Amino acid sequence: MSTPRLNQELVLEAALRVPDGAGGYDESWSGLGTLWGEVSPRSGRLTGGEEVTLSSYSHKITVRAAPMGASNRPVPGQRFVQGTRVFRIDAVTEETSRGLYLICQCQEEVAV
Hints:
The protein has a single domain (8-111), classed as Bacteriophage SPP1 head-tail adaptor protein (Thrombin, subunit H), CATH 2.40.10. It contains no helices and six strands. The chain is mainly β. Strands 1-2-3-6-5-4 form a six-stranded antiparallel barrel. The termini are far apart. Pfam families: Phage_HCP (PF05521).
C-alpha cells in the first residue's frame, strides 16, 4: 500500500449525553482534537427518511495511529467534522501490521 496523503483537517468529536430535566437526555458533541487524514469516497446510495430523502455516502478515512485508549484514537460512535461535512465512524482498524495508520469506515448523510 502506498503512503496515505494526510492533507485533510478533521475534528474528532464524541457524543455527550446531558440530562434534559424531564427524565431523558439531550445529545451534544464535544471536540476531542484535530487530526489530519486522507478522505477516500467509496460508494453512495439514496435512502428515504421519515420526512426527507437522504443521500448516504461511505468513506474510508485514514489517520495516524494512536495507542488503544488514547483520546486521539477514533472509536466507533464518534464522528469526524470537516466544515459542514459530518462523517459518522462505524468501524476502526489498523491499516497494516506495522500499526502506523488507522482506517476508519465512515458514513456521511446529506439531505437532498
